[in-house]
Amino acid sequence: MRIACYFPAQMDSGPWLEAIKTRMPFQADVEAWHPNSPAADYAVAWQPAQAFFDAQPRLKAIFAAGAGVDALLALKLPEGVPVFRLEDAGMAAQMAEYIAFAALRHYREFDRYEAHAAQGNWVRHPPRPLGDYPVGLLGYGVLGQPVARALQSLGFAVHAWARTQRSPAGLRLFSGSAGLSEFLNATRILVCMLPLTAQTQDIICRKTLEQLKPGAYFINVARGRHVVEDDLLEALNNGQLAGATLDVCRDEPAPAGHPFWNHPKILLTPHIAATTLLDEAVAQIVANIDALERGNEASGRVDRRLGY
Length: 308
Ligand code: NAP
Ligand code: GLV
Known about the structure:
Strand order of the largest sheet: 8-7-6-9-10-11-12
Number of helices: 11
Order of helices and strands: EHEEHEHEHHEHEEHEHEHEHEH
Number of strands: 12
Low-confidence stretches: none
Mean pLDDT: 97
Largest sheet: 7 strands, parallel
Strand content: 15-25%
Distance between the termini: 28 Å
Structural class: alpha/beta
Helix content: 25-40%
Bound molecules: NADP nicotinamide-adenine-dinucleotide phosphate, glyoxylic acid
């Protein structure tokens, strides 16, 4: 069995190849792909080049080394080959930490106290009722569900929006375009955890931001292309939004001089809300290859038609 891997330079492929080889229950040649590599049975990839797939005529499956598959599905992939993505693999806990931090920082006004401290001002503000800060999660999937539980455990009222309608215990779920306005009207802290698809691109725009409760706050841990950046800046500048914590931008890294870098109402982080963890990711990918080789179902299959 041959497994071809493609990782961007910052991921350091060496430990990945070693871990996959060590854990694989079958004898496998595991190698970092190069243009003269022989064709492989399985591909493990993050942000691969098109040339990687052009050189793979006999793949049995493609594994994304992350949760989102928008960059992968934007390529011309071999027809009919199943694509699998990571499910949680240690990312849900990181997401919960990041979003809880951003929501608490806003609601408890830690950003305001940081600014006071920088000026040497000992100023106290009256406490704000947590009930005035309902959180709306755009996306209630593998990562959204544990994030909802983490926020609820801190006392936040949480509701969510998804594509398919169902009635989960302990949370109001809105769905589809029909449910979006009601979801937004009920939201003070908006969190984007959607996959980037043709349906969700540019979803954060003037029309959606205007429907949030006044003085709303926006947290984006999904993809930069969910956001019309000029509309977001306008909402921040006209006071419709109190602030934003952004882990992603349309172009990454955010270019020098981009208005997000120095905006007083924006906290920008470099796409670190939930990082792929090598051990957890490799365990999941190896278990899935093992399942496929034994003729069993593998988990985390992407619906290539829906885009997630
Ligand atoms: P997931 O399990 O596939 O969940 C996606 C959720 O979005 C589901 O609830 C789905 O609805 C909903 N959704 C999809 N299309 C929709 C539409 N058109 N309208 C309404 N709801 C829609 O994905 P996940 O594992 O939670 O990951 C979510 C995203 O997080 C990833 O795609 C990735 O972009 C991002 N991410 C970012 C980082 C980071 O560090 N910043 C790290 C990991 C992941 P249904 O439940 O009805 O299917
Ligand atoms: C990171 O952004 C991921 O999708 O895993």
